[in-house]
Amino acid sequence: MGLRRQGRELALQLLFQVEMTRDPAAEVVRRFWSSQRHARAAEEFAEALAFGTLENLQIIDQRIAGATENWRLERMAVVDRNVLRMAIFELLFHEQTPPAVIIDEAIEVVRKYGAPESAPFINGVLDAVRRDVENAPSRP
């Protein structure tokens, strides 16, 4: 597994723990790294994704709401919601990563951690957000 995929998986785990425990992100990150070690590049990427996602949560959640019909955020599975958030953060703020790569990576991560029906759902939402971002005059 590549370092960026590993970083995305670790970021998902961090976001999941922040949401489930409602503890401050810095505390979750400290506890998380105290119990496991990974390549420093994967850890740095995971932290950048997790903190960037949390810092831009309002913008990201608005994008999700705009791309989903009949799905309130609170009704989504926690894994699906956080994979969407993380991928949308990348779509909006990591212009150097091609959107197709971001979407493919999100689908692979949700296949590993989500329900069987999660992958098509994630693909559809992210594709709608991607089209919206590409057609917008400026980001986010």
What does this structure look like?
The longest helix has 19 residues, at 3-21. The protein has helices spanning 3-21, 25-35, 40-55, 57-67, 78-93, 99-113, 118-135. The N and C termini lie far apart (30 Å). It has one domain (3-135): N-utilizing Substance Protein B Homolog, Chain A (Orthogonal Bundle). The protein is an all-alpha fold. It is globular, with a radius of gyration of 14 Å.
Which features characterize this protein?
76% helix, 140 residues, N-utilizing Substance Protein B Homolog, Chain A, globular, mainly alpha, 7 helices, single chain
Derived structural class: mainly alpha
CATH uppermost class: Mainly Alpha
Shape: globular
* Computed CA radius of gyration, to the nearest angstrom: 14 Å
The overall strand count is: 0
- The unreliable regions are none
Please tell me the CATH architecture by its name: Orthogonal Bundle
Rounded average pLDDT: 92
The CATH fourth-level homologous superfamily: NusB-like
Query: Terminal Cα separation, in Å?
Result: 30 Å
